[in-house]
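EI: anyone free to look at a 218-residue chain?
SC: sure, send it
EI:
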Amino acid sequence: MISDTTLQSDVLAELRSDPSLDASHIGVTVRDGVVALIGTVPSYTEKWAAERIAKRVYGVRGVAEELEVRLPPAAERTDADIARAAITSLKWHTAVPEDRIQVTVAKGFLKLEGKVDWKYQKDAAENAVRNLTGVKSVANYIETVAPRIVPGDVKEQIYGAFRRSAELDARRIGIQCRNGKVTLHGNVRSWQERQEAQRATWNVPGVREVENDLVITP
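SC: here you go
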């Protein structure tokens, strides 16, 4: 087992070595392998990056992200400006279905709603607006409505995807399927492996919801 003190040092080192953000105002605490990020960042992009960077450190079991976005004056935008920019960005993103996403902005907090066929389209919509100037947070409430297929086929296809992935040990992961909802249970070695299992599951036709109960056991 990795001690909390060692894990804290590793996460801080990883944050400080990544060129995508300024970690000088980010603090890290760790308890039982769960990392808490505290402090301030100048953009939602850096807040999102800090969480992803912390999760890729070996030994991290979970991340509590408590960072506050404090925009510099030059980055302040009205909600109307942000909404217009978001609509344009969504329109120009080839992976986002046209006219199926609604945008709401309040005090820099952006909400996405609508329905798409695939999880990658939901993720693409969020990627399209995350880096816009003035955005403080993104709430993605887009629903996926992939076509229904036989639950047994879903489970078999998920296991097939797991076996093809070099990052996963399919023998340690259990799968339950019910009406398009998939529950993953068992053990994985890292947060990256946990995320890979979830990504592979979402890519299977017929999956509408994923509940990831995989436990990280380094």
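EI: The CA atoms of residues 34 and 129 lie 29 Å apart.
SC: 👍
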